[in-house]
Amino acid sequence: MKFDILTLFPEMFESLTKSIIGRAMEKELISINLVNIRDFSKDKHKKVDDTPYGGGAGMVMKPDVVYDAYKSVKDKKAKVIYLTPQGKTLNQEIVEQLSKEEHLILLCGHYEGIDERVLEEIVDEEISIGDYVLTGGELPAMVLIDSVSRFIEGVLSEESTKEESFSNGLLEYPQYTRPEVFMDKKVPDVLISGHHENIKKWRQEKSIEITKKKRPDLLKNIKN
Ligand code: ADE
After folding, report:
1. How confident is the model at residue 164 (pLDDT cuts 50, 70, 90)?
2. Can you list the domains of the chain with their CATH numbers?
3. pLDDT of the residue at 223
4. Helix or strand run (H / E) with residue 219
5. Which atom of ligand 1 is nearest to the CA of 135?
6. What are phi and psi of 104, to 5 degrees?
7. 188: CA distance to ligand 1 center in Å?
8. Which of 88, 103, 108, 110 would you label with 70, given CA atoms 20 to 30 Å apart?
9. CA-CA distance, 41 to 49, in Å (whole number)?
C-alpha cells in the first residue's frame, strides 16, 4: 500500500518510522511518501496561504499550490482523502475498507482550511477522526495510516486483527499475563485450565458483558 501525504509539516510524520509501522516500511509492506506543499509555492517568500475572500479570521491555503502538490503524485487509481472535521467519522469498518486500496493520497489542511475549488477538483473522500477540531490534518493522517496499515497482510499476525475490539462489533475480552497473582488478584481459573472450548466461551461472554457495560451503543449493530 502506498501513502502519499500532502502536508506543510512533513517533519511531524517522523514518529511513524518507529515501531510496527516503521517495520512495515522496512519490509516494504507499505510506503510513505511525504510531499511538502510549500515546495510548490511559486512565490519568492514560499507563501502557501492568503486571506479569505469576504473577510474573517485566519488564512486559507491557496488552490494553485495545493493542486500542484497533488499533480506531483497524481495517479488515476489513487483515492484522495482530505482530513477534515467535516468528513465521515473514521471507524473500524472504514479503516478495513481503506486497507483494500492500493494507493491513498492524504491531504492535510491547516489554518482556516483550503480553497474550496481545489477540494472540489481533487478530493474523493473526506474523513474526520472525531467531533473536535485539531490544528491540522497531520495527526488525523497519522491515525488513518496507523489504523489502515494494521490490516495490510504481514504487518501484524492474522489473529491480532481477527480477535480485537470492533472486529466482530464487540469490545475485546480482558487479557492477563504472568504473574498468576498480582495484588491479591488471581487470573481467572478458566484461562489456566487449558480447556480451549471453555476459554473461548468465557471470552465471548466477557466480550458481550464488557460491551454492554462500556459501549452499549455497539450492541445494536452486532454482526455475529
Ligand atoms: N483537521 C482538524 N480537525 C480534524 C479532525 N477532527 N479530523 C480530521 N481532520 C481534522
Report:
1. confident
2. 2-149 (3.40.1280.10), 163-221 (1.10.1270.20)
3. 58
4. none
5. 2
6. -115, 135
7. 41
8. 88
9. 9
